[in-house]
């Protein structure tokens, strides 16, 4: 079975096109994702991305995290998928429609000499109601709300980009105990489906620095939906404008929250290598 190793700003994936080939029998997808994504005993990746036929879009993108859980959506993965479809998947469209568990997303390719230099994705409208995150508590939005964890109070803003995000603004992201706080916030009882966590340092109104603890994957070098959630939280807390460069450990994404209430994410996608997965 053929696979492609791809990444968006270091957030890396094993991409398998199941439009062109069948997934072999045997272990289930969760087990396969855990095995294949293992950094020492597998190919190594933050997640497994499977492409399926879709009756309402160019393709359906399924994302399974390295721990075997399924994600509704992934911003870095969808840029990689769009690049793959154009350059290798036989879909020569500059504007694509990709179905995800969070709905149909619309990537637009930025082409240079016939190659994909970057991808700008319409990430849709952010959801701010507590039940849409989802998050336990009374109706309404969650903006700078206190959350107590082991006797320490954090002020969080919650955003759904089709998947849940908990955003915290801090003076210096390098001083954050990412490995200590990340998993505890991810699995906090307030979030029944767990949550992604973004620690954000505001540099100015048009630039932020972010470290991410990703639900189901742990620390990652970038998170596209997390970058979008960060900008929404920045605007809601009056820390940033609506067009922001989000600096992540793996690189920078441009996020725009436009007047139509949609978020647009622009960033690169890269293919690292391709290979064969033994089917027995």
Low-confidence blocks of residues: none
Total number of domains: 2
Arithmetic mean pLDDT: 96
Number of strand elements: 18
Helical fraction = 10-25%
In CATH, the homologous superfamily of the largest domain goes by the name Diaminopimelate Epimerase, Chain A, domain 1
The number of helical segments is 4
Level-1 CATH class name of the largest domain: Alpha Beta
Q: Which structural class best describes the helix and strand composition?
A: alpha+beta
- Terminal Cα span: 10 Å
Binned strand content: 35-45%
Largest sheet entry: 18 strands, mixed
Site (Could be important to modulate the pK values of the two catalytic cysteine residues): 165, 214
Active site: 74 (proton donor), 74, 223 (proton acceptor)
Pfam family, one: DAP_epimerase
InterPro entries: DAP_epimerase_AS, DAP_epimerase_DapF
Structure described in brief:
With 280 residues, the chain is α+β, with helices and mostly antiparallel strands. The protein has helices spanning 29-37, 75-87, 178-186, 224-236; strands spanning 2-8, 11-17, 47-52, 59-65, 70-71, 98-100, 103-112, 115-124, 145-149, 152-160, 164-169, 196-204, 207-214, 218-220, 243-248, 251-257, 263-267, 270-276.
């Amino acid at each position: 079975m053929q696979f492609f190793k791809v990444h968006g700003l270091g957030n890396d994936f094993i991409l398998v096109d199941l439009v062109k080939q069948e997934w072999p029998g045997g272990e289930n997808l969760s087990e396969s994702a855990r095995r294949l994504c293992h950094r020492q005993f597998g190919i190594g990746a933050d997640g497994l991305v499977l492409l399926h036929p879709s009756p309402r879009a160019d393709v359906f993108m399924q994302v399974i995290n390295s721990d075997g859980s399924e994600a509704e959506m992934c911003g870095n993965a969808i840029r990689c998928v769009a690049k793959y479809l154009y350059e290798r998947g036989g879909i020569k469209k500059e504007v694509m429609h990709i179905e995800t568990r969070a709905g149909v997303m619309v990537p637009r390719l930025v082409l240079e000499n016939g190659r994909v230099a970057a991808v700008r994705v319409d990430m849709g409208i952010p959801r701010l109601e507590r039940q849409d995150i989802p998050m336990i508590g009374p109706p309404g939005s969650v903006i700078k709300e206190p959350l107590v964890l082991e006797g320490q109070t954090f002020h969080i803003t919650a955003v759904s980009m089709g998947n849940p995000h908990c955003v915290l603004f801090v003076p210096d992201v390098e001083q954050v105990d990412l490995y200590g706080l990340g998993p505890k916030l991810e699995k906090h009882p307030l979030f029944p489906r767990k949550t992604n966590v973004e620690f954000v340092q505001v540099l100015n109104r048009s630039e932020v620095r972010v470290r991410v603890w990703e639900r189901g994957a742990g620390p990652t070098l970038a998170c596209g939906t997390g970058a979008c959630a960060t900008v929404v939280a920045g605007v809601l807390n009056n820390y940033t404008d609506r067009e922001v460069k989000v600096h992540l450990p793996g690189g920078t994404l441009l996020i725009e929250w436009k007047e139509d209430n949609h978020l647009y994410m622009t960033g690169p996608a890269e293919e690292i290598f391709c290979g064969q997965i033994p089917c027995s």
